């Protein structure tokens, strides 16, 4: 059978074990060749090929629902559900999403992009099946790092106590998050994995004993098992625990899944896989460099904003000891060097943004200077903790908001469009976004040494023109102030971050007589500069790459209303819409935020 002939999971159901094995080889070779061309999640997908085949072989999707946690590892699922011929468009504008996507397939039954939600989705799914009186199994595939998430445990807590509902949880244990999995749950899984002898004995009995004996033994299994090993966390929570099982052996997975279909009790099947399987470099990668790979493009000079911020935090750390609380993004946030240099000044708390925020608040309450780096999209998880534990009591936590703005290829679940709205409503919270590296160093210096409020500093996904070999960073404090990048008479462009380059370019192309104002402090605003512009009677054009709820534009409007300024004002933002994946420039265009859209908006007005 050729890959291209697979239009639906039913197409693989007649295959023999040997053919399924060959299919896995073919899929793996295809993924290894295809993903580097488009960019995408390489290692997680190479690791889960056989597991996905076995699931689709045994379960009957979409009658049986297969839910993938995060959804970054679902490429084989996409292939088996007829999307192979779209892989050259993966993560490209209007192309295949890098995650599960409702619009793409009836087999995509849970969209997330954020880790830890699959088990709640599973519980909702099986409740709904029951309410609707529908037949079908519910299966959730969750990684060993994602299952440590608080949300996952909230769902485990409920499902484990449900006597009349049955969920099938596949724990895809590859010992890795993006880098190494961390924490006590991870250690527990390692201990379970190490019970190899017990598992071999168990497998032997499973192979030789008739079913009624196995059923009988399952009653006394707990006692038998405790003779061999200490408690199993899942069994203690009320689940039947099966495994660990080799996640690259399709035949034994099929055998086990078939049996699980007949069980009445919720079950956790512990499947051991190798992240990056079949790809030498990805397999040996313990850092996480192959978790996601970028497509090869002409190299843009400079360094990523994440690396710039990591370097600034290093310098801040050298000046005065700080502590970094990192929720699972050490690689993406470019903190590998920092950890090597200051291992006792850093903790990776795993995929646990809520915990990270409250822990940071508590550290700050004890007088420790804390840096809490969060991707904009994942900071949403910790809304309550940031509001109630950090902002309300006014704790001095500096929050780095990475990937702020349009993120491009990761798409709708990862856009950084809501953090300004979210932070703006929080009492005591300050918000800033640097235009360049000098702004960044000065604003961070202010956040750590020039004030003691909670402060969110945003920075985008792209690169900044900073030469890490040549340029030096100066920690001279920048107080909350705006600056003029360019001056004029009739109009003021106001924005923050790298969007200012777009406005500078519009000014140049239209030869406008206008100010370009770097509103690097979003909250509080620089009222000196704002009043200066307003009292000069200038028109104002506010451009924000994000939602305008509670952002700079409504703040300016409020200020104008309060002080009776009647200036003509317009704005552009990405408000009240879902922004899909695509190349950054294409997404700007689609959201009517590109240079041409600004020019059109100004026509007849200036
Ligand atoms: C709430 C949240 N925080 C962080 C991330 C970023 N992230 C994506 S995948 C991943 C690691 C997932 O590891 P695991 O669950 O073990 O699955 P694997 O990739 O190893 O298959 C992380 C941290 C995310 N998607 N959601």
Could you explain how this protein is built, in words?
- The chain is an alpha/beta fold and 606 residues long.
- It is built from 24 helices and 21 strands.
- The strands form five sheets. The protein has a seven-stranded mixed sheet, with helices on both faces. It has a five-stranded parallel sheet with strand order 2-3-4-6-5, with helices on both faces.
- Strand 13, helix 19 (437-450) and strand 14 (455-458) form a beta-alpha-beta unit.
- It is globular.
- 50% of the residues are buried.
- The model has no long low-confidence stretch (mean pLDDT 94).
- The protein binds thiamine diphosphate.
- Residues 44, 70, 72-73, 114-115, 143-146, 172, 174, 176-178, 275, 328, 351, 353, 378, 381 line the site of thiamine diphosphate.
- The site of thiamine diphosphate (TPP) has 21 residues, from loops.
Annotation keywords:
606 residues; alpha/beta; seven-stranded mixed β-sheet; five-stranded parallel β-sheet; 24 helices; 21 strands; 15% strand; binds thiamine diphosphate
Spatially, the strands of the biggest sheet line up as 10-9-11-12-14-13-19
Overall average residue pLDDT: 94
Provide the β-strand percentage band.
Answer: 15-25%
Shape: globular
Distance between the termini: 64 Å
Poorly predicted runs are: none
Walk me through the topology.
Layout (H helix, E strand, L loop, with lengths): L16 H22 L1 E2 L1 H5 L1 H10 L6 E4 L6 H6 L37 H15 L5 E6 L6 H10 L8 E6 L10 H10 L2 H13 L2 H18 L4 H4 L3 E7 L3 H12 L5 E6 L7 H5 L7 E2 L9 E2 H15 L2 E5 L9 H6 L4 E3 L4 H13 L3 E7 H4 L3 H9 L5 E6 L16 H6 L5 E3 L4 H14 L4 E4 L4 E2 L18 E4 L4 E5 L3 H12 L3 E5 L2 E3 L3 H9 L3 E5 L8 H11 L6 E4 L11 H7 L4 H8 L4
Parallel strand pairs: 2-3, 3-4, 4-6, 5-6, 9-10, 9-11, 11-12, 12-14, 13-14, 17-18, 17-20, 20-21
Antiparallel strand pairs: 1-7, 8-15, 13-19, 16-18
Helix pairs in contact: 3-11, 5-6, 13-19, 15-17, 20-24
The structure holds thiamine diphosphate (TPP).
